[in-house]
Amino acid sequence: MQFRYGVGTDRKMDAAGADTHMINKINTETKIIGGIGLLTLAVLVGGVFFLSKTESPSVPESEIVERNGLHWHPKLTITIDGKKQEIPANIGIGAVHQKIHTHDQDAKDGVIHMEIQGVVAKEDTKLSNFFRIWGKEFNSTQIFDKINGADGKVKMTVNSKENTDFENYLMKDNDRIEVRYE
Asked: What is the tens place of the pLDDT at every residue in 62-81?
């Protein structure tokens, strides 16, 4: 059945008398608006999820070392009973790439790589983190299996100056850290 709306305009009506052109137009508009709505919702949900995963935990201002990450290279030398100890390559490199690690090319020189993204807290830069990742003991009374006693004592210098922070020392770029048991 055809019904003329005006001169030169042919619109079709369905069996119930509805204008099929208008129904198709409304369906198309509904699909477009619905699609835009779903896309907007997906972007909002994705944005909230992304931001919740990337926000750093709240760190007190006094504990912040860097706000935008760091890439530092302190150098560590360990000497026990007069013998320089080897610091192995690839400490902290594996299935999970640790923020503090060593590499093949400069581990023999004692270079520690600190590659930390985002807000960096003092806690992140402690020397104890490197020893924990390495799986070795180090504190003011012990280096590896050597414990302070009649045979010797743990001592530490940073940039050629005595330092008693030991495991709590906050490493900095280009530090020269020397740990000795003598």
From this structure: 999 999 999 999 999 999 99
H-helix or E-strand spanning residue 34: helix 20-54
Structure tokens at 170: 């906050």
The three-class DSSP label of residue 15 is: coil
Q: What is the pLDDT of residues 91-135, one digit of tens each?
A: 999 999 999 999 999 999 999 999 999 999 999 999 999 999 999
Q: Where on the phi/psi map is residue 135: left (φ > 0), alpha (ψ -120 to 50), or beta? A: left
User: Which of 133, 144, 124 lies closest to 94, judged by CA?
Assistant: 133
- Domain boundary assignment for the chain: 2-54, 62-181
Classify domain 62-181 at the CATH topology level. Ferric Hydroxamate Uptake Protein; Chain A, domain 1 (2.170.130)
At 25, which helix (H) or strand (E)?
Answer: helix 20-54
Q: What does the alpha-carbon distance between residue 53 and residue 49 come to, in Å, rounded to a whole number?
A: 6
pTM exceeding 0.90:
no
DSSP 115-151: EE-SSEEGGGGBHHHHHHHHT--EETTEETTEESBTT
Contacts of 125 (CB under 8 A, 6+ apart): 65, 72, 114, 116, 170, 171, 172
